[in-house]
Write a structure and sequence with these properties.
The chain has 13 helices and 16 strands. The strands form three sheets. Strands 1, 2, 3, 4, 5, 6, 13, 15 and 16 form a nine-stranded mixed beta sheet that branches.
Amino acid sequence: MRCAVVTAERATRNADDDGHARGAEAARRAVRGDEGAPGGRPPGGVPLPRPLLRSAVELYLDLHAHPELSGHEHRTAGRLAARLAEHGCTVTRSVGGGHGLVGVLRNGPGPTVLLRTELDALPVTEATGLPYASTVPGAMHACGHDLHIAAVTGAVELLAATRDAWRGTVLVVGQPEEETLRGARSLLEGGRLYERFGVPDAVLAQHAAPLPAGTLAHAPGGGEPLMAGSVAAEAVLHGRGGHAATPHLNIDPVLIAAATVLRLRTVVAEETVPAEQAVLTVGSVRAGERGNITPDRAELSLTIRAFTNPALDRLAAAAERAVRAEAAAFDAPRAPAFTVIARSPALRPDPALTARVRRAHEALLGPGRVLDLAGSTATEDFPHFAAGGVPVAYWMLGTTGAGPWRAARAGGEPVPPNHAPGFAPDVRAALPVGITALAAAARQVLGPGPAGNRETAS
């Protein structure tokens, strides 16, 4: 996930000088306070108990080494459920028919805040060289969901330990299948999330991003989209298989697929005005087994991203026309199948809630470490949690150590972004901030306790 940051120069000036934590023992030393921020103190923030940080880091390292792909998050859900139960949550598993779960931490009457974290990894082969790298061939936490889980467990532990400072209910949702854009709807619709556990007063989430570790980034005020909406689709192209030596007797679906991919890449230019941001990407082409055999079908997977529903509708219709037209031009024996498999609207954080959360983050870290973020064509299914007008807030959590960040700014190797084989968050700087950022944001929604007030950022 690449994020355009308005205040990149300020971010560079304020970033720490520590580099990546390159191994499990380095991360453990960091949370013990042997290096990096003394006593596990987030840059500019409040100190956290070392046992809490140690527990969160160990969970992160374990999850990173054992990623599970979308729809297969059984072990990951179990680890999250166990941690939430340890911190006093009542946990319900298999919400929505998959591996979704909900943890409930009650602390008297008051507002309800929902903290969302994702469970799934990506079909990416890790190339970080870290001692705790993925042990699962072809799977990697390349989007930071392992960091999100560790941060939310730390935030719940922190909130559970400070019950005298707040009142209300904390819901923690472990969401499967975020990467396929299916998980949120399965929880909300199939799992009847809000019917069973109550409609929250606010929903909060954060996401790892290749920004300086120790920083957070929010959308500027005004209600502009933070992320694009998306349509995910699959197309099946039919041909006539046969021997590769007799192409005149065959109809080659590989050739149809190649022409279709090139045609699809022109759709955005033809269907959108220059000022309208949109992206169409064909991420997968599958056809055939051997070079001497013409197959009888080819499959394409594509995503369309735009900031309005009409634009998504228009581009999806144009993409389907292009697929059907190329098949007809090759005289395919059967019309292609074009299927929309998932859809999510643009992410528009609630302006009032975002302003409150941002003030809490600035009080926690200092204004210089809370950045402005321009809209991105990355996409999420988190907007579904805003169903019925529920306010949502969403921010980015910087994960890049200052050494790699400054090297990239000076013209060196680019920082590996989300979804890249080299994506490697600086755990010792990012995780403490992720924990305290979630807890501070939750406190802006929860009621004050007898010994606390709403502005305490801890």
